[in-house]
Amino acid sequence: MKILPALLLIAAIVFLPFALQSGTHHYGVTNNDLDGPNTATFGQLQGNRLTHLHTVLTGGMGIGGPGNIVNYVGETKVVLASVTNGAVCAYLSDSGSNDIAVFKITEPLSISKVGNFTSPGYGNEGISLAASSDVLYSASSGVGTWQIQADCTINLEYFSENPNNEMNGLSVTPDGRTLVGPCLCSLEGGIMSFSVGPFGALTPYGPYDSDYLPTGVDITRDGKYAIFAENNGIQVWVINTDGSLGAEQYFADSAPGESYNVRISPNGAYVYVDSYPGTGGRYLTTMAFTEDPLNATEVGSTLITGPYGGAISMGQMATILPYGNGGGLYLAQDGNINGAVSLFKINPDGTTVEAPNSPFSIISGGGQGLMSLAAWPPRPF
Length: 381
Fold this sequence. Notes:
There is one protein chain. It is globular and about 45 Å long. The chain has one domain: YVTN repeat-like/Quinoprotein amine dehydrogenase (Methylamine Dehydrogenase, Chain H), CATH 2.130.10.10. By secondary structure, the protein is mainly beta. A hairpin with a 7-residue loop joins β25 and β26 (328-334). The chain contains no helices and 30 strands. The strands form seven sheets. Strands 12, 13, 14, 15 and 16 form a five-stranded antiparallel β-sheet that branches. Strands 25, 26, 27, 28 and 29 form a five-stranded antiparallel β-sheet that branches.
């Protein structure tokens, strides 16, 4: 895996209406991970635009992107979770101060700061986050389970020390029973998994050796497979019922360059892989995915060009609720002094078409960073 710098400042993001749903506001949240006091940006989907609502201080510090740290680009550093009173809680990791910043979002899109919660352990790359139902998970030099309260505050239930195998990514099965993520376990990286027991107790498995540095992770709708970006394609691991990992298979794609992140489509039938060859733009590859038999086959690859086509690395990739013929996918691109969000429509065959005038909402200079992003409503699983 190449070791790549990245610089980013995002103050407004724009999308097209790929996920309109009656009675529900659609919005995006970014963790900008600035070099210094960190910020979060909130934007609302209005007609065919996600208009800027607020850019606010998180109350913590960022680290300004990965510097010479490997695998940072696949981490999720902002997640959204709903609570029983209809509010949505936004959790953002402050990589430089080792805390989790919390905001509460209520209709009609009122945003209030809840607080900052110190995470145990440490992490050279900060804290990766995942959420399932009323539980938030954090990963750095250890993995924690936090109970989400109705007011969006979080109470630490359990922390599993993992000092020699720092986690640099995290995903949770839809049933909340298993956590999986890449780890800095060796020069070639590795993978760990955790079964989630009563009161948030965690049982670790691994580390599992990886053929090549895995970055980014997503888990299938049925919770049976974990998929990582790896080398020039994806690595698929079986998730056993006890939370351990079984056999793995590698499936290559034809896009040039390293694979940096991966995301499963809203219907679960396709896998999207982000690749960067070093110069000349990025590639977004679609792979048709089946479980029986286990297979992933490339069906198309899109060259992402324009002012941010030569971006250094990608902050995060996410899919949003399907509408009509497949839904939408968006990803963050990070250039030398600029950042942008690219938006894609998902066709019925899984291939993608970039939205007109994408990428959107560029702001120049101002500080280092590597954006992570999340959207509401979320993917169905």
